[in-house]
Each structure stands twice: as structure tokens, then as C-alpha cells.
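Sequence only, no structure available. Ideas?
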Amino acid sequence: MAASRLRVAVSPLRRDVAPRDLARTLPTVDAAVAELRPEEPLHCLRPQAIEAAARSFTEAFAGRTLYAVKCNPDPRVLSALWRGGVRAFDCASPAEISVVRQVLPEAGIAYMHPVKARSAIRLAAAEGVRDFALDSVDELEKILDETGSAEDLGLVVRLALPKGKAGLDLSGKFGVAPDEAPALLRRARGHARRLGISFHVGSQCDDPARWRQAMALAASVVAAAGVKLDVLDVGGGFPSAYPGADLPVLAAFMAEIDGAHADLVERLGDLAPGELWAEPGRALVAQGVSVVVQVQARRGDALYVNDGIYGSLSDAGALGWRYPVRLIRASTADVKPFTLFGPTCCSLDRMKGGFPLPADVGEGDWIEIGQLGAYGASLRTAFNGFDRGQLVEVSDAPLLATPGYAAA
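Reply:
I predicted one. C-alpha cells follow.
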């Protein structure tokens, strides 16, 4: 029950599952469907897959791994990441900080949202958080005011990057411009026990060279500032497997980061940072959850299912994100693409796809949709009252594996 309350603290997902279903692991998704015959969306958590992905990343990355909690704040997910070697967490709100503190009281926490309410800064400081992101002088002053200019502050300046080619570009909202960043770094240096610089190349970035380019820009900013840097945070954006994606292996991303860091040390000398940070989210948890939906009606090539863009499938609608799918029963019919409609009365609740499924799929069938551990449950709403969902743990393999990560 404690875990369920924690989950609700950061997402409106409600569960209508008996305690026995939360307390045990079923062997496969098919077994879960056969036993539960769910009429609500069934979230199938694979803790072993999350643990394996976390271990792969933390062993490959030559620095401190901070999981981006916004991606999936479920306590079971956080615990699986901890077992996989993640010891620090990137939080963006007091609610996320509270969940991490309750589930993993020994974990490190950094408040990496560049714009925060004063009350949020105070609450974070009261929870022992000392590392804060910022991208303006005004934010620096807020942090100093609300922490009483604590002597052990870590201040991380978020650097704006030019627009890139990631699956989801994140260049428009946060970050200080490179020509303004040196002055902000110099000002922050006088108040920081740890001074850092961070950036974000964009979500689902499949180009390892993008990190090298961003790190070179950060090196130029530090050189112009002329101040010692303690931390270089290479952010998130590390990709996960989706249908049609042709991803480099994990080692290719780490090779670019390691090479760029060596170049940076040679260029900056004594000003070079002694520590690297990264903030992976999607790459660690996407494969760790799938959602089983039930077909409520079929109209031609459209399937009406019991989850949609106001639920776990937000990105399938708004962003046209492609997810792996499979029909949970045997079929010898040819495969064809389908459009999905969610359960609400809103006509925008549509996921164009196409989602390849056997041509004989129909009302009452169950469909597993994979790679929803990233942002699936965390983006759910209660619109139209469709806010219920079941959750079970399973131990079979995810629908897709990300290149270079260990199998569960």
C-alpha cells in the first residue's frame, strides 16, 4: 500500500489490483492476461530488464549516473535502478524528491530543473538537496536566497544548444546562451563548492557525435569564463529501441563522450572538470514496461482500445511515436497496419500508427504495446474518468532490446 500511495503522489494512475497481484511476479504477459483477463489497461513491469539496462549504463559510463525521475517515478522502477547500480537521481519537483527520499533514503539527489519556485527550493534544501541547476542570474539569486547561501552548494549552469536532430528536440525552453554563459559561470563560481555545466542534446538522440559537439561547446564556454569547473553534466537523450530505429550500440555513445572528455581536459588543463555526470531516463526504463490494452470495437482498419493519448499512449498521438505491438493470441492471418482510438469521447484521442497486427484482430482481443516504461504511466491523466489501470510484474523479455545493453 505504501508503494501505491507513493506512485499516486507523482502520477494520477490508479490501480484496481488485489494486493496478491502486486506482491508476486507472473512468468509472462500472456500468463498475466490469462489469469487476470483485464478490462482496464494492464501495465506489465519488468524489473529485471530495468536492472539490466541500468547496470549496462552505469558500467559503461565513466562518471556519475543520475536517473531522470520524470521518465518513470514508480517506486518499483526506482528500486530496480538502484539494484542496477544507479545511486543518484535527477529530480524536477518536490514530489519527485519526496518519492526518492522515501524509497531510497541513501540516494543522491540533484534538482536539475533550471526554473524553480522559491518554495520548491526551500523544500529541496530541507530534504538535504544541495545540487541545483540554473540558467540565469535571477535563478542563481533565488537559490542563494532560499538556501541561505549554503556553503556546500553545487551549482550547475544549463547551457543552451543549437537545434539538433533528436527524436524530440529540447532546445527551445531552457539554457543560457553560449555568449552569456561565461559571465554566469564566473558569478556562480563564487558561491559554489561544486560548479558544473550541463546541456541536453534532445530526447531519443541517435547520433553519438552530438555529445562530442555539445562538450566542445561547453569547453569553449569554460575557457571564455576562465574559472575552474568541477562537473560536466552531459545530460540525457540516450535512446531506446523503437520500431524502425537503427541505433548505434551503447559503446558508441560512450566512446564519443570519453573522447570528447579527453579533448576537453587537454584543452582546459587545470580548468577541466574532475567529474562527469549523465541523466539517462528513456534508455534505462523504456523496455521495462509494456501495456496491455483490450479492443472494444473494430471499424475497418481502426481499433478502439481502452487506453489512449490521455493515458499511457500520449506520445503515440501527439508525437506520432511508434511502439512495438503484438496480438496476445495465436493467429495465422496476414499482418496489416491499424490506427488506434482511445477510450475517451474526444476525437483527438487517436494514434495513427500504423500498428502492424494480424488482420483478424477484433473486439475482445488483447494487444501488448511495448517500450512504455518511459513516460507511459507518468503522462497519464484522469480525463473523462479513464484513470484506472492495473499493474503486475512479469519476468519475460521485453518486445524490443536496445543495442549494447545486457539482456535481462
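The CA atoms of residues 189 and 204 lie 32 Å apart.
Hope that gets you unstuck.
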